[in-house]
Design a protein that fits this description.
The structure is a homodimer.
Chain A: E1 3-6, H1 15-24, E2 29-31, H2 42-51, E3 64-67, E4 70-73, H3 75-86, H4 93-114, H5 130-158, H6 171-186, H7 188-194, H8 199-210, H9 212-218
Parallel strand pairs in A: 1-2
Antiparallel strand pairs in A: 1-3, 3-4
Helix pairs in contact in A: 1-3, 1-6, 3-4, 4-5, 4-6, 6-7, 6-8
Chain lengths: 240, 240
């Protein structure tokens, strides 16, 4: 069973949370929009799903996953669906729902992170909303990061200290790895000062990075480098 | 089986999407934070779930649902869990996932709606971010509303024209009712000008309003009136 992932080819973005789960599980998947157009793939294949007039249940936005006849969109839903198939959630239903709940909290956090560079409109350039981004960022770092990462620290403390859900790696863990890694990329000074407040979160991030399949993925060309088109952007003036 | 809903008592907010589903199905539930503290309910009961040191899987934020031993947070997850129990999703798994996907798209839309009055920080007053809200709103109405509601219109066209998922009322329908109704409350002039572009969306909203249980709920004291503490806020200067 080969999964087909459809996501923008030049960025990690929200698709990276799906890529990380697939990679951590060693799943067989094709990152369609990064494959040649001549083979019927590439960005046109993605656009056909978004804009095709015959798609019965049209996705609103990427990432999109094709699993056989099933077409699913939205990062959190894709991960919820893949979780049991990839062995990346606890086996019991309550544990599966809990992992999904954590991912939905991350969904909210990720949107707030996105807005550090686009507080006014995703359709405008960062350069056109720099003043607002500076003001947004001040509040974001004063209250929001500690609220979300402090929450994750608390969740880890109340579980086994090493995993967010259950006693093994879940996609919530790979997602938290990506969030902390992305925040470090975009805001190295702020994170260096603050992350000591969340030792279990940092230890989890490091453990995910060392997981052999994740480590191999991160060292491969499949891992798109962070850049200033994605979710986590390094704008030095925002990293006070 | 009595469900326990935990949400802020003075606002519709995100909890209203859960209330509407419970009401549309005629489910037996208690809106805990609106009940007397003397009975161990009220806001302290909500705060105990949020801040209690012994909650193994702490919720990040309300709404929270207790279903027997199961504690769930996040609007979209609660609705996903309740859907089959309330008969508010298609019976097949693909239809259930599709309904959840729609609700997740609404989750994103709702956050963008929230930011029309709080683009800089949810922890600041609207009065402290009025200039930014005006600029945010201009872009929001230029591109985002049509993107989301135009998408809903397309989904309706490709389904049966009357329901977002399957051939009967789903919680996606009650959620879209709430979104359109809330936008009308907050932005009456803009909506009056624009909503003719989405006739099926408007017809669906009206049909949900007429559903007997929903109609009874809307006429009851259980329906908290819209106000300027909730998600949809009427600030005339934002309704150009």
């Amino acid at each position: 069973m080969t999964y087909e992932l459809y996501y923008w080819p030049g960025i990690q973005g929200r698709g990276e949370f799906v890529r990380l789960a697939l990679e951590a599980a060693g799943a067989d998947y094709v990152d369609i929009a990064r494959e040649p157009e001549a083979q019927g793939k590439g960005v046109p294949a993605l656009m056909a799903l978004l804009n095709g007039a015959t798609v019965t249940r049209p996705p609103f936005a990427p990432p999109i996953l094709k699993d056989g006849a099933l077409l699913l969109a939205h990062t959190a839903l894709i991960l919820h669906h893949l979780g049991p198939k990839l062995g990346l959630v606890p086996a019991d239903e309550a544990g599966r729902l809990w992992t999904h709940q954590l991912q939905l909290t991350f969904t909210d956090f990720i949107k707030e992170i996105h807005d550090t560079h686009h507080p006014i409109a995703s359709g405008l350039y960062y350069e056109d909303q720099k003043a607002e981004a500076a003001r947004y960022g001040a509040e974001f770092w004063k209250t929001r990061v500690a609220k979300y990462l402090g929450y994750c620290e608390r969740v880890l403390e109340r579980n086994d200290g090493k995993h967010l859900a259950g006693d093994a790696l879940s996609y919530a863990d790979t997602s938290l790895f990506q969030i902390v890694t992305g925040l470090r990329y975009a805001f190295p000074k702020r994170m260096a000062r603050m992350e000591k407040d969340w030792p279990k979160v940092v230890a989890l991030r490091d453990a995910v990075e060392r997981q052999p399949r994740v480590a191999a993925y991160l060292a491969s060309k499949r891992r798109i480098p962070f850049n200033e088109h994605g979710l986590f952007r390094k704008y030095p003036e925002l990293d006070a």
